[in-house]
Amino acid sequence: MKSGAAAIRAAIIDLDGTMLHTVPDFELALNGMRAEFGLAPITQQIIEPMVGKGSEKLIRDVLARDFDTDRIDAVFDAAMAAYQRHYLAINGERATLYPHVIEGLQALKDLGLRLACVTNKPVAFTQPLLAKKGLTPYFELVYGGDSFPRKKPDPMPLLQVCRDFDVEPARVVAIGDSSNDAEAARAAGCFVLSVPYGYNHGKPVQSINSDGIVGSLLEAAELISAHNKANS
């Protein structure tokens, strides 16, 4: 992070691939949907690179393994409804916290930062999942991929958080696992930190245009603390 820059006052944190490993949940829900169309199950290794761009893109990518574009268009609404039904039934059942997430969130709060969770996951999935994993109390704001007309990598959700918190984007850091998070943060004028253990659409984290790679949310808090001390 840059010396001479403004101190950080808020953090916007991604969910899938950043706080929670959710691909096992996606596997259950997507294969439940596929079974209703007579399609064979697919593996977590196939699913993982598809995660992060919203449910609509996910369903289309999964169906594209077996159907052409016309067939996808014809069954899309039914497939989405089936996926949502299956996901709501198992939401959080197999998802697991990454190491040091709770400690990292607490450390960020202890620094006085205001926290928002911004994800491309539908908010109807996001809120119960955060609650089930004990993460809800850490966040003042939670926005999903359907909270606004545009989702990450568009900066719209991040800019809304800045307005809600009344904090300049230059005093906000986005923390995520993918290029979506970095592109949204850059366009909004925020700092961005990347974690190396997430999904990033199957691409190496080093390909992300970020201000640093941190091994955990706790390490992110330590870096932000050092930055704020140097720029207070």
UniProtKB/TrEMBL annotation:
Keyword set, alphabetical order: Calvin cycle, Carbohydrate metabolism, Hydrolase, Magnesium, Metal-binding
Keyword Ribonucleoprotein: no
Full protein name: Phosphoglycolate phosphatase
Signal peptide: none
Catalytic activity annotation: 2-phosphoglycolate + H2O = glycolate + phosphate
Pfam families assigned: Hydrolase
One GO CC annotation: cytosol
Annotated binding of Mg(2+), by residue: 14, 16, 177
Functional description taken from the UniProt entry: Specifically catalyzes the dephosphorylation of 2-phosphoglycolate. Is involved in the dissimilation of the intracellular 2-phosphoglycolate formed during the DNA repair of 3'-phosphoglycolate ends, a major class of DNA lesions induced by oxidative stress.
Organism, scientific name: Massilia cellulosiltytica
Cofactor(s) essential for the protein: Mg(2+)
Gene Ontology MF terms: metal ion binding; phosphoglycolate phosphatase activity
Active-site residues (renumbered): 14 (nucleophile)
One GO BP: DNA repair
InterPro entries on file: HAD-like_hydrolase_sf, HAD-like_sf, HAD-SF_hydro_IA, HAD_sf, PGP-like_dom2, PGPase_prok
Assembly and interaction partners: Homotrimer.
EC number: 3.1.3.18
Biological classification of the source: Bacteria, Pseudomonadati, Pseudomonadota, Betaproteobacteria, Burkholderiales
Classification via NCBIfam families: HAD-SF-IA-v1, HAD-SF-IA-v3, PGP_bact, PRK13222.1-2
Gene3D superfamilies, sorted: HAD superfamily/HAD-like, Putative phosphatase, domain 2
Pathway: Organic acid metabolism; glycolate biosynthesis; glycolate from 2-phosphoglycolate: step 1/1
Family recorded in the similarity comment: Belongs to the HAD-like hydrolase superfamily. CbbY/CbbZ/Gph/YieH family.
